[in-house]
Amino acid sequence: MNARPLFAACLLALTLSACTTVPTAAGTSAQEAAAAAKNRSPKEILDAAPDSDWRTPDPSNLLYMDLANGRVVIELAPQFAPNHAANIRTLAHEHFWDGTGIYRVQDNFVVQFGDADSDDAAKAKSLGSAKTHLPAEFHRSAQGLAFDKLPDSDGWADQTGFSNGFPTAINSKTGTAWMTHCYGVVGSGRNEADDSSTGSELYVVIGQSPRQLDDNITVVGRVLKGMELLSPIKRGPPPMGFYENASERTPITSIALAADVPESQRVPLQVLRTDSQTFRDLIEARRHGVNSFYKRPAGRADLCSINVPTRDPTGKK
Question: Which domains does the chain carry?
């Protein structure tokens, strides 16, 4: 028997099992929850999810980045970086990124886009009415933050989980929380000074999670849809991936705020709630294995190995 179809199916199951855990539902032990989840595939768990387990992102927090071959949808996280999110909304509303491009693609790291001449005052594109100076927003207080904690330990923080779908770490000693650099997360590029970012130059993680950047750079959101458009882009030369010739850049047609786009032209998209039982079940399926392919289930799940599922509520593929 050819093992490739089975292996491919298992990889698909891994991709679909994007999730997190919070306390189990009343009357259900952790062992019972794990056993129930283990007997269902991630697809079965998602197919059974009630509509109430899905949320529709606020269009005022969504960016549509249009490339020649499709649209990338980014959700902003103002609960972590309110000043940067506000500046990014202004930049999008005033069409700052229209006609710019992706000018850096570093293998196993990031794609970066915006004004490639931003460091040259004579050539830099005007920020319009957006602010030219913002405070660093590397972290925020953990107090009052919605947080769905994972049960497993993490090498970078004593608590990890999700906050409204965003991968999150907490330092319980300092009482601070920050978004982590997982695949698909969007950060705001800066220079040496911690307050040198404005949100005009953004990057998306496309490689192994560079968690060493956590709490060192302002993270502003994550990609909900369109990573398949960013990940395959031609890599720039080492060591940093900046293209030597402008002709190599990937043009950006526009980056618009979804709220500024007619409703009929918006992307129908919902995100699984990370405080839902469906998400908890997906996490347990991920932690314990879902089929006979797993001879030695891991019994744990790393934060950045968990992708929060999205869906088209209209049912279209």
Answer: 4-54+272-308 (no CATH), 59-121+131-265 (2.40.100.10)
